[in-house]
Amino acid sequence: MSHKLIKLNSIDPVDYMKYLEEHVFKTYDPNIEEFLADKIQGTLQSTRRVERALHSRDVFSIKGYVLGSSVHVQTPSGLRIPLRIVTNPSIMITGDKVYLYIRASSIGSHPVPNPWSRTFIVLAKFPVKDFLNGGELVVSAESVLYPYITFERVEDPRVYSDNNELYHVRAIMGEERDDLFVLTFASKIGEDGFPKYIEPVRFMWVDGSEHIIRDYRDTFPLNNNYMIIRPVIKRRGLAGIIIAPREGSVVNIKELHVYSELLPTNNEFKTGSNCALRISSNEYLLFFHSVDKYYALYHTFVAVLSNDGELLGLSKKPVISPRIHDYHGARPGTVFLCGAVRHGDTIYVSAGKDDEITLILETSIDNLLEEVIWLKG
User: Fold this and answer.
1) Domains of the chain
2) Span 272-286, mean pLDDT?
3) Residue 1 pLDDT more than 60?
């Protein structure tokens, strides 16, 4: 076992607990949080080139959906898990197959995260033709990433198909309840789509040492050279989207980009990154969300970034707003994307609805880019 990664095929709860204590938590450095908070605070004072508005048109329509009862899951031991929720999925198309990584919970878990809500990630593989047919998707799946200790949730998978990388969140709570770490882990996936090991995304400090911070969900690659990160520094009341160079799972914070347009406004509780999609040889589409400060409604916007993380344009209005007529579940007003793919001229996104089910939404690339306000040219 190295200081970076732990293999999944031989792990047990005691091994995992020792790994966290000896190789993960000991690298926590609050100085990095202060550094990131100062960068966010300084950028919040700069002028925004585009101000967000909440009125939008329906850019996406429903292609398909997945319910808890639609997914037949087996554990590595061959036992079936009856599911209550299937939400916040990431998506990858490889050849003639769709890979859908889904955050799931058993019927015993409360649908909204709490100290006793345990979610895990399952992988469903099925033909592209079934996906393109739309409607309810009924699939078989296998659990691929799951908790090992009592106070742990496994959440929000993001797949980076260009390099066969899978990122996911582990929310690990101590017995005191306020001792919470929300960490992003990375792994390589094989041809079968299964992760072989996990390692935390780490932040390189000025002396070259590698550390974690306390809360950095919504973190995943933009491309081979840049990472999208979303640090939360609760003691400063700050959170926001940052783009920084990466080498594998290590983020170099000395050369980060912070854009005021990707940070929360006075009327927003937070912003967060959802997923990224290559749309040309040197341009990437970033889906990101804002959460209303007073009513906690989720609105999804898009930004266009260059190969080197420069912000080229973004939508002023949401491309996805709360879809109250689609489904009525545990957390109304929430649509949360974790995956996007392009098939021909159509963009498909996979999203959690109300923290309970999965929606597959579609639009054309041209329809989506009509919403973008370009910052240059």
Assistant:
1) 6-374 (2.115.10.20)
2) 96
3) no
